[in-house]
Model the fold of this input.
Amino acid sequence: MIRNKSMKRATLASAIVATSAMVLSIVPAQANSTGVTATSIKLGVSTPLTGSAGLVYGKVPGAMRAYFDYINANGGVNGRKISLVIRDDKYLPTLAATQTTNLILKDKVFALVGALGTATHSKAYTAAALAKNNVPDLFINTGFSGFANKTKYPTTFMVLPTYNMEAKVMAKVIKDNFPGQATFMLAQDDEFGADGVAGFTTAGHKFTATPTLYPQGTMTAARAEGALTALGAVPGKPVLVLFGTTDVTATLLKAAEKLELTKKFTFLAGSVGADANTLLALGVKPTTIDGVISASFLPDAKDLTDPYVKQFIDINTRYNKGITFDNYVLAGMNSAMLTVQALRAAGKNLTRAGLMSAIEAKGSTFASAGLVPLGYSATSRVGYNGYWVSQLNAQGEGKPYGGKLVIYTTDSGAGAVEISTFVRPTMPKNGIPTNS
Amino acid sequence: MTQFITAVLTSLSSGAIYALMAIAIVLVWRSTRVINFAQAGQAVLTTYIGYTVIQRTGSFWLALVVAVISGAVIGAVIDRFFMRPIFKRVKSGPIVMIAPVVATLGLLGIIQAIIGFVWGITNQSIEAPVSTGGYKIMGTVIAFSSYNLLVLVFVAVAMLLLTLLFQRTNVGLALRASAYSPEIAKLSGIKVDSVRTLGWALAGAFGGLAGMLYIPGYFLYPNAMDLLLVLGFIAAVIGGLESLFGAFAGGMVLGFAIIFSTTYISPKLFFPTAFIVLIIVLLVKPAGLFAPKKSRGA
Amino acid sequence: MKKAGKVHKPTTTRKRLLLFVLFGWLLLILGDRVGELELYQGSFVATYALAITSVVLLTGYSGQLSLGQSALMAVGAYAGALSIFNAGWHPVIGLIMSALIAGVFGLILGLVAARLSGPYLAGTTLALAISLPTLANQFPILGAEEGIAFDVGPAPARFGEDFSQYKWFFWISALASLIMVFFIVNLLSSRYGRTFKAVRDNPVAAQLSGINVEQLKVSAFAISSGVAGLSGGLLVMLISGVSPSAFPLSLSFSLLGAAVVTGLYNLKGVILGGLVLVAIPEIADSLVSRIGGSDNLTTVLPGFLVSALLILAVVFTPNGPGHLLKKHH
Done:
């Protein structure tokens, strides 16, 4: 009996604890301008800040916030100041789902901007009922082509070109510049690598050997040396396509140094895996980086002649103290700049639906650092739809491959890779958008 | 043929790395019956200390000494002020197995948070003290460098020294006795508590060595040795958890198995190989390859 | 709070049933009084409580230490998702499959595990936890990183317009957890269940008195796996789909920590454990956002707080808060 009572008490106690621990909050009927007041706009992002992924992408949300602070200091958007709630999801799907739900239900943000990761965001999207609540899901940091599916992700706007596009552009570069050379591909064994492999297949490129897919975290120094030894025996100067993160690129380049194979291969590193600053910080020799070919849609973060880069560096110095400017900071600020233009385009009477239709209508004309066109339209949620090809020098600067800037555009499907004459819009004065 | 030679050489260098961590785990296990998951944090923390020394003085070797000493101090402090109070409260039942696991995991989180706070969450790198370029044999560069050799030599020497310490000195006798039977050791006048702390200090020092040797071949960040801890633990279990030679052998077995399966079958087998090897070994010898005749269990 | 429970008078199944129904009814009322977010968090509490039950059952009652609960949850999650998404079965069948398939998987694993003691079992299950998710990427049917949807659909129309998805999640996870825990509690108080404790406390004596220790350990492993599998199924229901990275090793570790906070030797505290897993990161997050401060600090502080709590729990109440209530045993 006594045991029974104490059990009952324990159960009751837990229930009471459970109740009291939950801060009561009542959700209002979903207004279309949740998170917007006469003087403020609240945005949110769930992204990795800690853990291995935070190591690489942790700078992105801070860069967005720095740009918003800059805009706020210059009057905000239609008199409203932008705040950004940043939540750490450690790159884990479960945390992404709960953090994104928190952003919607607790922080009551108006829109999401810059969510990162395929496994994480695909879960978070449904779990937080973004579609049902019509929450704009802006400029997500993943190139997984599935997110462009408007039926499945009706409120999502991509910003990165898809991994498919990247692979197709690379296939063209190989075809045009390295005919007859053996080609190999080392790719991360997930949707990133799989999309890449699919892109090469679509482009009709056939690798000399089946692409090697390695699970994340397993490309150790020893494995990298093994992989390169095998390829080192191939005659000529084989092209090595690396579809992985920058730390893996670094590991492979270091293995090449060890085996004196740095000049044996032409390295073609994907945009995700070729951040020069990171490569140098990871101990890759400048002479090894010299000559690595990569694809990008933004200008090089070290290109001080680029007005956008110059402006962003200036903002970074003033509003993002202690953070070194690099490609990730550049990408974050660029997304923030697009966000500000989207908010402006949606007009003074800001609603969620209005924001999304504004991007569909005017998004392709937004000014941004991107050197390739933006593909937003009533039917397309694809952001940048192409790449330019760069080659790193020993200083880690990315210069146009072949000495001349060529912009390639394509899609994620069977469409051809075309050379575009796109010239990006001039930067608004001081990097402060004035569009409407 | 080149592929095969490279596979053997890289197996050796990975095996040596796994062995480094496995030995640190075995040292703690032998002295206190604890699987120390904080070892990854301790080792990285001491490596960060070493990194700071390198930044200041430019000397890798000085940094190595500092890292080893601070590793020992940190290990001792953790045992004295952290593990000992826990064991005072936890005496019997399954909680004895699980409490140290949870406590050391918590400690790991705290150490990584401290590192993140002090040094920031960014990648750093430490330059190897010797050449990382592969040796040239008959005109071909092989996948084995002075740096790989250095790691291998350090593992062998450290293992030898530790074995001598355990087998030939009174301290070693005390270490073994208090691990084997704390009660009897206490009765025979051994200060069991101090001896255990010594075990933690030894492991901490070894962790410092492991970090300073491993990181130049990799990168430095708060979670840098998490995966290594997991693989090192698996290697230690393969080796039987009790013997230093077992840890070395376990590391090598794991190194060879992973490299050969990923080279010749599929790169996707990296982690599954660890599981398969472990299962096979334990099905044949439930207490690992080099368990003492009479298994002492947990 | 010092009432000693010296008299062992087993609660009858009927009384227990009444208690569970009462508790379920309480939750139901509660569910109508709180907001969407609380319902969602409550669903996680129920799900984690169930996962912790599997740990308590395995470690606390049968003395086996597993670091692979995350892998078993993954097995259950994939089994459930495939049943619902690919086979098109009813979600209830899907959740049953979660428990069943994971249970069978655990049975096979348990046959190996029974031979292994303490750290050897820990090592094996750890290796399983890191290798199983990478395998999931190898089979196209498992949907790689985007994974497969785990969709139980909206609540039946007869519950009315206002019945939200989160409330539906809460109902399902709370009900499933209650039923499962009820089943486990009854099992443990049965004659068979009591032999678990006998084996844990003194395997040699148990063996001498004719108990088949190995068989008992295997069945504990299988049942625990089934419970973990169901919680895995519920977890991916809450995050709308399954993918390999939803089951990291750190999940196993969190569950162990929560089991210690809960108290390893009884199931009464599992709700508390679930609550801790959900609430602590929340509290840490909001604390950090309140104090502000330098970026390095705010980034690492939540991790620091969660770890610190874990340590405090082990240092001060290694046998769970329930232990403080009970003087004896």
Observations:
- Chain B has a mean pLDDT of 88.
- DSSP finds eleven helices and two strands in chain B.
